[in-house]
Design goal:
two-stranded parallel ribbon, alpha/beta
Amino acid sequence: MIKGFFITGTDTEIGKTAVTAGLTALAIAQGVNAVPIKPLAAGQELVDGQWLNDDVQRLHAACGGRFTPAQIGPLQLRTPCAPHIAAKLEGVAIAREPLLAAIRATAALADIAFVEGVGGFRVPLTEGWDTADLAVDLALPVILVVGLRLGCINHALLTAEAVRGRGLTIAGWVANQVDPAMPHVADNLAALRAAFDGEFSAPCLGHVPRLCYPSSAAVAAHLRLPPSLELK
């Protein structure tokens, strides 16, 4: 068993990596030995002769470079698309047990791991295994990143129901302002708070505004750690 949290989201491109980096930076600043892990990362660019994934590099920076990119991102694919498609195009096998072993090996190097999923909660990885199964295999409480845009309440509650349906607990949720022009933000946040407080007993861990420079420290300034971690 590893200690930590599984970071999922209401969709792809809604700020999971930014929030994972922010939570990691916040935990480290509060004296917690934390590591971010992105088990599968699709999309690399060739930089100075090295193939790099932007999300993995961002998480690497968030922990001050104390863990290697290979430890943070054990399976990195070059094609920027769904991981099962990228793996097929590149002739790479996404193997369940080796990937779980890599996650656990990195998590064992820290007190707390923030494990980031791919896309939304149910993204196929290989036949018969998706990111929801990955979360169940790791048996970690879930932090849900809600991308604030039209339709976010429906997406958030459906995802929360799916998480609970897998027998997992929701440790908290983060509102991330993906649409800076979204109308009625306060009303949407109020509806989300009411639903998560009442139906899921999950606290809001922050509202991240649209930031010009979303560094891990800048994001961390708008977050708080889950109550279960604050007590440690």
